[in-house]
UniProtKB/TrEMBL annotation:
InterPro entries recorded: DMP19_C
Protein name: DUF4375 domain-containing protein
One Pfam family here: DMP19
Domain of life: Bacteria
Domain DNA mimic protein DMP19 C-terminal: residue ranges: 100-202
Length: 212
């Protein structure tokens, strides 16, 4: 997908929402309630927004220090909605992961990886997700071209998987305790790669999977 068509052309605001109009004519409605800094701001400050240099993000200099990506980023918003589409399909199938399309399995795998990495690191992902979910997450990172992320998660999955083969290790806590100093250094390094590179997933994911 050509992401240049998703650049922001116009932004309108009222008391409850933001309405983005994109270069391709698409309109994206966002509730202010999801962004406390904006929802709490004085109305006079809200119109003073600035586009980021790449045209995908919006900053409000009077509310927060401008960033390269923006306080709100349209690619992040659209990627979130793409993931929500896959989650809706999963709910429609009453949680039957195996009945999802390949694309939706990959999207759900990516979402679960991101959720667990944000909430506790790879140990949480390895402990709470089955092998199929981990496989589809890895497959998704590969197909979207997130090569450094893919290598990091392959390394983590391989390390945890190797230690899991020891039948004396009954839990993920046991696995972590059994790691030698080099293993722990590798885990930390690979996780840092993930945290540093995960901001690129929305752009890469939309480029590969599109909006629907």
């Amino acid at each position: 997908m050509d992401l240049s068509r998703l650049r922001i052309r116009r932004l309108e605001m009222d008391e409850t929402r933001l309405l983005f109009t994109l270069v391709n004519g698409m309109r994206v409605d966002v509730l202010l309630s999801g962004y406390p800094a904006l929802a709490r701001a004085k109305p006079a400050l809200c119109p003073h927004w600035q586009l980021t240099e790449d045209g995908y993000g919006v900053n409000w200099p009077d509310l927060a220090v401008p960033t390269t990506a923006g306080l709100l980023n349209i690619l992040e918003l659209l990627w979130k909605r793409r993931i929500e589409q896959a989650q809706l399909c999963l709910r429609t199938l009453h949680g039957c992961f195996d009945m999802l399309t390949l694309q939706h399995r990959e999207l759900i795998g990516l979402d679960r990886l991101d959720m667990d990495m944000s909430g506790g690191g790879f140990a949480r992902f390895f402990d709470s997700r089955d092998e199929a979910t981990r496989t589809y997450a890895l497959q998704a990172l590969d197909v979207i071209g997130a090569h450094q992320l893919h290598q990091a998660i392959v390394g983590l999955n391989g390390l945890f998987g190797r230690l899991e083969q020891d039948l004396a290790l009954l839990s993920v806590e046991d696995i972590i305790a059994a790691m030698d100093p080099l293993d722990k250094q590798r885990v930390e390094a690979w996780e840092q790669v993930y945290y540093a590179q995960s901001e690129h997933v929305a752009r890469l994911g939309l480029t590969h999977y599109g909006l629907e």
